[in-house]
Amino acid sequence: MASATARRGTVVGAVLLSLLGVPAQAAPRQSTAAEAGSTLPAPDLVGLRAVLRTAQRQGAPGAMARIDDHGTAYRVAEGLADRGTRRALDEADRFRIGSVTKVFTAVVLLQLADEKKLRLDAPVNRYLPGLLPDDRITVRHVLSHRSGLYDYTHDMFAQSVQGFEAVRGKVFTYRELVDRSLRRPRTDAPGAVYAYSNTNFVVAGMLVEKLTGHSVRTEYQNRIIEPLNLRDTVYVHPATKIPGRYAHGYLTPDQAGAALVDATDQTASWAQSAGAIISTTRDLNTFLSALLGGRLTSAAQLAQMRRWMPSGTAQAYGLGLRRRDLSCGVSVYGHTGAVQGYYTYAFASNDGRRSLSALANTSNNGTVLTTMLGTLESAFCGERTRVPSGSAGPVEGPTERPVGRPAAEDIAHGIAAD
Ligand code: HEL
Fold it and tell me: Is 256 exposed, middle or buried (0-12, 13-18, 19+ CB in 10 A)?
């Protein structure tokens, strides 16, 4: 299983309640013994490699994962970082993490709550007067995707390649993005239901900038990146290049059989505080371990992040944080990301002592996205949930669904299946 190169999957020992307006079903979930971390089964590295190879067969040029477990790092990578040069994907490669950015943005706001500069149940309009058309929309609604604000990316990316090419060089102000959302009716009353919308985390970015007087870039840097020494984590918006060593990202066109589009260079301005951070698997594991380990916010604010709303099959959403309930009964906490060319999974155990970050360098390929969910099973459930080689199911199957339409993922409208 282990070999000398990261591409072959080197295994290396490394040094390393309802008072707040939340409905009853959102009460914090009790941890099980298995979630305590120390009782987790050993990671299944053979199964992990099989998942990555399957993603590759299903259309990802490359796929990789890193598990950090009580100071030991396990790295597995398959395939290519760059189809042009045929350079192998490597764990040192940076990539666009998409909506995993939302966890960073939420952490900054919860730190501001710790500093008494922000109240989660205050209306957004208290801090950004006149921004939203309804004074009942609170900061908590925004961070839990219950604002009812329409997701402007539904229109923007209705056609994947054309939509992307139209914005890849554009620079938007936050207000322009919010205005795009407000041109459409709101989807629900404030607080009514969970409905994922990037608009929420654009508003969150505006709150960060208003309350601190600094750019989100400065706040990510000072509050998270520097304290945790995340050397490969950068926010370069509106620059289009990923600095240093990076994996290229390949967008899958909507038309079956059309050539992949290299989507690496873009402003990611449509995403900004909702999805424009660049990082590595190592840094994401460090970040989530620190968050779940209680080293980024007070225990009280972390508990707020972990007040769950159901958000689909075997998953729930807190404040900028997803919970996924795995087949072995273990729940893990983090986020997923889908930005053109890159699918990311970044999750940690209840105590933060085991973390998994995984990348497939393609997007708009729902089969790959669903397959990559298997990295969580391998990392946290061990061998018991390994899908046998050659069996039916997501792990060996060809692309059976139209591209861009994952089966069981929690995806914004117009992005994937209902
Ligand atoms: S979608 C998600 C994921 N989130 C949301 C956000 C992010 N990413 C986006 O909103 C990007 C949408 C366009 C992506 C593009 C592609 O696949 O490259 N798709 C299309 O253009 C489809 N027509 C809920 C999956 C998350 O996990 O939170 O990241």
Answer: exposed
